[in-house]
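Chapter summary example.
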Amino acid sequence: MRLRCPGFRSFTTAVELARRQARAAGQADPVAQYLAALTKGDAHPLHEAWPGDIVIYDPKAGVIRGHRELRRFVSENKTWLAGLGARIETMTSTCAGGRAVVELLAQLTYDGREMAWPIAVVAESPDPRSVVFRSYCSQWPVDGRRHLRPAILQPGSARPGDIVARYRAALEAGDTEAVVSTFAPDGYFREPIGPHYAHRGTAELRSFFTERFSAGGGLGLQDCAVTDDGVRCAVEYNFLRWGRHDLPPQAGIEVYERGPDGLLAAVRVYDDVEPPAPGD
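The structure predicted for these 280 residues follows.
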């Protein structure tokens, strides 16, 4: 005799519906889900939302692929972040063309000191079941050293336009006055090592970029991916040259925020490039 369980089909339907809803929620805000996984040490929701491939490019851990590596990475990060007393705040999100760039500020306690650590996370879905996360930051705030970050993207064909293009051309040329002219009067440039290294207003910007170009000229950045929502433009790049010094390609991202006057209200950088020594 076959036993019938009339509620089983309804139960399995409800489970599948819950799974689909969880997956949809995770896909709607993948970076929030990624951060939750790191802070809770639980990779399961990521697997639910993205049953295909999950690939992570992390400045400290390198490339993470596969479920086993992901579980270990998430567990180790939970322990590490808990040890630093990390509290992570989302600052901005820039979404366009199937890509999201989220800027974060982590409040940490390291070696007895309180500090703010800027981090940018890019989430991109190459297909409906898979996701790639790329994190960018300087590790100087947490260990006092610069770390060479090899290139992770190939050069791309997309180029930023308008005021961002003007800024990048002036940056490559090493033209201090042209760079400063792209900023709004109260605009600022923030270095990768934290908000306390922000240079605001014409005088501070002129002084900063004069020093920045003192190694024999401008900076050579190779564009890889551009995410532009009309207000903010995020450019992932390979850093190739600082003044007269050629560098091994190093990965980074800059976020340009336009003001209502069309000039730059802010430029925020996330990389770990070591500047040339003074006098080189």
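To summarize the output: The two ends are 88 Å apart (CA to CA).
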